[in-house]
Every structure is written in structure tokens, then in C-alpha cells.
């Protein structure tokens, strides 16, 4: 049975055969009406915010599941006689300070009391069938003493709680997963030593200074110690045969050399380990797929040479890194982020036939894209603010979708993009290009940014591109936008500060156009916007020669219009633009 907004439920007490009841978010204060429901097995009274007592459940010997999360109860002592109880959820019970009532319930398997005010779990001591305990963010709880010796316990989630020790887990021989992350008072992982079935340990953002207690956990697959600022070594993970993932980012570790024998390792995150100088411990790990060593002090990635399964490498912001040697010929490598490094070349990527994404943004020493030639699966290239002079090495990258060469002051041409039929996005802003004629056959193109290209004079190259949605050409020397006339999907155009533009001819009839920025131009009229029925925002401020907005009256979707600094009369009104809310004329 289910109900919402119920206040009178006494009639339910007459249903002697009632087995399940759901009364979520109801205005009840107690469950006394259930006293006689001796066959009740399932009760859900979650988020009944006025519920303060579970007295009516006393002695219900067949009750198996109780959900009372988000209620105002301050005690569960009335569950003491519920011998069949196997699952209890009292999450977000802010008034609940004790689990008294659960002691000795021998069928109880799962307890979730997270975000409650409990101070102890000592009352779980005799719950011999217990498998899962969740007490995360129980700030008042300082100990796991009630879990000692529970031989069927598989999962403990105590993240964000006030616990100071986990030593009481020592005899929990079935334990598989422990989450004690963000426990600011936890100094040690003592208690986990030798647990043979332990698969996952999450101790992120704790003050622990060692992982020595994990050395005998032979089944361990995942270790999370990110943000443990006191941790200066992970040497004790040496030789763990099933270890697949290590996240030791934002720690004080200086070396990973002892990971060499962790032959099952697939993912390593050591980002922001400022003291880490070398990746020597990754040498020859044949199952390694992902490495994040960004923001470290490493000088080389040569030890990745034999990591034949490697798919993703992040070495961004490694200021001492000079070369990508170590990646050559890795045939499964799909993603490389080497942005903000001192590398001078990408030549070592030449044999990475599966490569899909390369980021070398802000690598100021790179002068060429050589190394990317012929990579047929390459989809994304980020080479902004590099010293590249040509895009020619991209010519055979037939899957290319995104190219960012923003801020490449020496780049003169986009010739390498000619005919790339899957290309969707090009950012060539702040470059020395004079033309985008080579984009003519890029039929999938959706977005082009050539802003602040001072030598750029024409949008020739965009004519008839039917999927083009966004064009940004502000602060350029273009004189016309007529080449956009066949761009039927165009939604956004920015030609602000294009001082040579005198007309918006080219926009007539573009029925999907939503945004136009043409401020600080020499336009004299906006008549060509009259049929742009989807237009929502127009900025023609400081167009000194513009005197009238009358052609906009009747545009049904126009919401914002800025025409200050023009010759448009300040009392102008657009009475037939029903959605216009922002009109700036002075």
C-alpha cells in the first residue's frame, strides 16, 4: 500500500495479513497503527518528516526491511524484537544518536545510517550476518568498535565520519571494500593488514602517512589515497598481484619504482605529486592503460616504451618534460595531453595508429605538427599558443573533427585542413592567417573562430556550408559577410569591431539565426535581418551610421537588442516584438 499526504491511517491496523506498506512523505507522527500487523515484512516510511517514533514496530517478528530515512525518529530501540530484520535504512535521520535496538539481530545484513547523529555502532556487535554497513558523514562517530569479529562483513563505508581508527576491522575476514575517505582524524590503515579478500580501499583526503598495512592484501585491486598530504611513499604496494588501479594524486610521494611488479596494473594517477621525478616503476607493465602524471617534476616518459596496452597519457604541466620519446609505436594509444610542457616535437607520435586526441596547447617550443601525418583515427588536435607555422601535416587525418590553433602567431595558412569532410570545429583566432578558403570542402563544419586575425579579409571558404552554426570573426579586416548567404544552419555570428563592414547582406532569410554581434562596425542598415525569424539577440551598439531599427519590428523571438551609441532615436519602440525584454538605446 502507498500513500502521500496521509494523516489518518489507523484503519491499516485492522489488516492483519498486511505484508508490505509504503507511506513515504506522509504527515504521520508514529506507526502505532501497525502494532497488530504480525505478518508485516516490508515497511517504508521514508521522508515522513513528522515521524518521531517507531514504537508500533515492536515485536514484529517477520519484519525484514525497514526504510525510515529522512524522518525525525530519535531511537530504534523498538526494533529489538524484530528477529527477521535483514535491512535497515535510517539515512538522514538527524535526531538519531544511537543504534540501540539492533544488538543481537542475527539476520541483519545491511545497515545504512549515513548522515545521522549516531555516536557509536557498538550495538552492531552481535549482528553475525552483517554484510554491509554505511555510516558515511556521521560526524559524531569516532570508532568502528561494533564491527569487531564480524566474519561476513563485506563492505564498510565510513567516509567523512569522525573515526580515528579502523583497527577493529582486523578480524573481518570477508571484507571486500572499505571507504574511509575524508576521515580527517584517521591517522592509520592499521586493521586492514592481511585481509585476503579486500578488493577496494578508499582513503582519499585522510592524514595517513603510510600504506604499509596493505602489503599483505593479496586480492587488492583498487587503492585510493589521493589528497593524503602526509603520504610520502607507496612502496608497500610492491608485488600486489591483482592491483589494477592506484590513485596517489596530490600526495608527497617521491617514487613509484616499486609498482614494477604489480603486473595487473591498468590505471595510475600520480598527478600533482610535486616531488615525483621519474616513472621508472611503470617500465614494462603490459596491462597499463591509463597514466596521469600531470603537474609532476618528471623529466622523461621513456619508461612507457614497453607499456603496449597504453591508451591514455596525461603529462600536462610537467615543466621539465622535453620529449615524448617513450610513446613511439604504442599502437593502442588514443589520448595524449602534453599541454604546458617544454616538448619541442611530436615526432614520437608517428606510429601511434590509434591516436584520437592530442593536446599540446601552450607548448611554446613546438614549431611543427610533424608526427601527426597520416594518423587516420585522429579526431582532436589542440595546438594553441605554439610556434607552429603550418597545418600541412594534418592533411591526411581524415577523421579529424576538432582543430584548435588559437594564438599560433606564426601560422599563415589552414591549407592542411583542405577537404577534411568530418571537420566540425576550427579555432584559428589570434593567428596570422589571411584566408579560410581551404575550408570550402569541409562539409561537416559547424563552428569557425577567426577572431583577432588582423590580416584576415574574407569569409570566402564558408559559402554554402550547410551545417555551419557558429562564426566568430570579430576584430578582423573583413569587408563583407555575403559569403554566409547559403549557410542555412547558422545560429550565431560575431563580427564585432569589424570596422570595414558596411552591410549585413548575407544574412537575409537565415531562419535559424539566433544571435548577431555587429557592434562597432560601419553598417548603415539592418534590413537584411527582417526575415531572421529565430533572432533572439542583436548587438549593433556604436554603429555610428545606423539610424533605424524598424525592420526588426515583428520578429517574434527577439529578446535582447543593444543599439546604444547609434543614431537610432532614443524613443524608438518595437511594439510587435512580444518577447523583447532588454532594449538598450542610450
From TrEMBL:
<dbReference type="InterPro" id="IPR032675">
    <property type="entry name" value="LRR_dom_sf"/>
</dbReference>
<keyword id="KW-0677">Repeat</keyword>
<protein>
    <recommendedName>
        <fullName>Leucine Rich repeat</fullName>
    </recommendedName>
</protein>
<keyword id="KW-0433">Leucine-rich repeat</keyword>
<dbReference type="InterPro" id="IPR050836">
    <property type="entry name" value="SDS22/Internalin_LRR"/>
</dbReference>
<dbReference type="InterPro" id="IPR006553">
    <property type="entry name" value="Leu-rich_rpt_Cys-con_subtyp"/>
</dbReference>
